[in-house]
Amino acid sequence: MEIITMKKFWKWIGIILGSLILAVVLTGLFLYNKYIGFVDYPSGGILSENQAKYDVVFYDLDLTVNSTEKSIAGCVTIKLTSLADSLDKIELDLFEHLIVQETEMNGVQQKFTREKDKLWINLNKSLSAGEVIDFKIVYHGQPMEAKLPPWRGGFNWSKDANGDDWIGVSCEGEGAKIWFPCKDHPSDEPDSVAVHITIPEPYYCASNGLLRSITFPKSGFRTFNWVTNYPINNYNVNISIAKYDRVTRQYTTDLNTTMPVVFYVLPQDRSKADELIDMAVDMLTVYRKYFGEYPFANEKFGLAETDYLGMEHQTLNAYGNKFSYDIIARNKFDQLMLHEMGHEWWGNKVTVNDWADTWIHEGICTYGESLYHLDKTGENGYHEYMQSIKRRIKYRKPIIIKRNANTSESYHMDVYSKGAYLLHSLRYMLGDSLFFKTIKEFATDSAYTYRNRVVTEDFIKLVKKNSPVDYTKFIHNFLHTTELPEIYLRKTDEGKYEISIKNIDYELPMEVKTDQGDSRVLLGANPVFIRSTTEPLIDQKDWYLKNIKKENM
Question: Class of the 486-551 domain?
Fold first, then answer.
């Protein structure tokens, strides 16, 4: 009987609690896919002919938020570059219940039409390729209200324990069109965004990037003026409003510069904030070992306490985990914050061009959690955590179902868990040196980051470049099918065995344990013959998702 030491006890407690948190998140994801989804207001999909003809450079939001009426009012100024000649109209996306009052360019009103969730602006002149214009849209109304945030998004008009307003926005699946006019497609991120939010005193509005100023437009009100100078996906543009206290730490980068780590926390939870924000600084330090420096070090890492579970809003991660901690190496850590923070690299810095490739955001981010376990608990803790991820895989549909997918089509549970397992398999296949080099290169090379969005093929080409063996077929089968390698272990005689994988036309390196010890064997359709007085054990550490079938055993 194994004696359970305190060290093992706390390790297992941490794994169990972490698995429970992951189960809650994935159950929510399952519910929105099965029962709700983004069916009515999905984001992305096939880029329209008109939207392919222009590139958004800048959004400037200037809005007043009215919690009593659950409404917003103001204007959005959009700067764009024409990518084609003779562009005389602009197609934008905007929730149909938001009312457009007027549109203007250079002080001259432009005609516009509405068609459900589309806003068409008819320009009073045709644009040439390369021409840059600014136009303003004045609008107001009640934005979509969140029903099951963050999985079914919209505005959260909540109250905190003191009865004060507590307002947030989540719209990963629906896109930012639910609250401001935009080009709602992942292929086009603005280079920067300014957000000006006017609210009653003493409320505080947190948003992306840096707070440039607080102004006072009239008695009893103040305007928070934020700006981010990094490219940002529309759904990550965010505001969180409450009577927040602000708790700050300084994070020191690899270049020995400092960056603020800020937690916008409800006053009643102020006493809990120090512990959480110290965890955040530690997590940032661990992640940079594997993925490079925090991507937005010129601005901040922010957390805003929210009335919904969480979301990876760039430089302002939503935090609604209610200070529910797991245990790792006998220390507390917050599983939800760890996951959302990982998206600052995978989703916010490395961003897909097509929601079909969502696994790059969610799968690599989920795998990042296992690297945190590796850093804190070593190889055993890493493998135990990967087993908890493996148990979540459903195999109901391929990770990539179709190209030009919208959010309703692309999001399902396996983009998280099975997507993470692809990275786990590649770690063994490439070996640690090449694997970690490849992941860091994907996260830091300018060809894949910030203004340059990616697709799965970019990842495959990078792996191929860095690996002496071409694993393209393996990656393709992993992402585009639900089929697993079928490993056949057949006893041919006493002490003799043959091993093959019948359903693949390539070879996989796999660990086989015999009475002589462990060896790395290339397995494929052609049988490999093994001598052993004991039954060979194949891939004991579960580097691969697979089925093993035995004959004559």
Answer: mainly beta
